[in-house]
């Protein structure tokens, strides 16, 4: 069994040697989206590190049947919407720093989801930042995502680093999954994407995450605050939601296995990703609390540094679960990207953070860990947090 918070109870052990900076101890931290998958692990990690924690979560009926059973006794939970200024003012009272996890997540079901992504992710972030300025809270850790990059890094043998165009429906329908050089149509070599890459959001969720980063940067400049955007790669682990199309691919595969079905792997299964355990993501949030110079936004990849294909992940998870082998379907979702391979070097150098949970060990734990069941009153839908 993985000890999920060993990487955060002693800051000097986060990723090995910590950088030469003071670690902020005994802070009062507000975690938004605190009852959700990642947010709840950030709460647990902050408590384990000795901080005082308050959560803010709307506990929407389509997701939660009230306060979840895993909510810790040592943390206060304010129930309310991050878009409501009065609720946010109450939640921020006496707080030193904010870990902002609240969001609608995932690729979504179509164009009808655009208003929700804009409203919750963008308006909610703007309301929170305006309230932080009123309360003179100067430290923000923002949950961003790898989706801000669009496609990952690519290099052409003739033209060097290139940015492939978005994949067209007709190409995907013909099984032409690999991006080509936009100048000569040659096959491309996959390269690590770094934080300096141009942002190229390719769906509504990604656009909303870019907007969150830009709002945080504006707040930092205006309020002389320290803002850190953590660009999560493919996060997995206990408390992932079950049976919802808005969750990550790991939870979709695990939900299928629990139902006795084979995981359905889209395209040809060769899409490359970086899978990172949620305990490592929580550790990155704590490391980021003491990072970032005043007056600007700093962004970091939060990734394991271990690249796997989606097909490999499905195969390992199915084997660990003891379920049917995955089925590669050739199906696709317009707006999905082909490969995103991350460089974790900047987070290691500036945050002192490195992931500590290996892929095999993490998948073995995830295969046996409980998922969060959908709320009984309403069929699960969009997921905050």
Assign an overall shape: globular
| Helix-strand pattern | EHEEHEHEEEHEHEEHEEHEEHEHH
- Supply the helix-strand structural class: alpha/beta
Strand content: 15-25%
**Main sheet: which strands, in order across?**
3-2-1-4-5-9-13
* Helix count, DSSP H or I runs of 4 or more residues: 10
Low-confidence stretches: 1-23, 377-385
DSSP, total strands:
15
The radius of gyration is 20 Å
In short:
The strands form four sheets. A seven-stranded parallel β-sheet has the order 3-2-1-4-5-9-13, with helices on both faces. Strands 7-6-8 form a three-stranded antiparallel β-sheet, with no helix packed on it. Strands 10-12-14 form a three-stranded mixed β-sheet. It is built from ten helices and 15 strands.
Question: Can you give a write-up of this model?
Answer:
The chain is α/β, with parallel strands linked by helices. Helix content is 30%, strand content 17%. It has helices spanning 37-48, 85-92, 114-135, 169-173, 204-223, 249-258, 278-288, 310-321, 345-351, 359-368, and strands at 28-32, 52-57, 76-79, 97-100, 139-145, 153-156, 160-162, 189-191, 226-232, 234-236, 264-265, 272-277, 296-302, 307-309, 327-328. Strand 6 and strand 7 (160-162) form a beta hairpin.
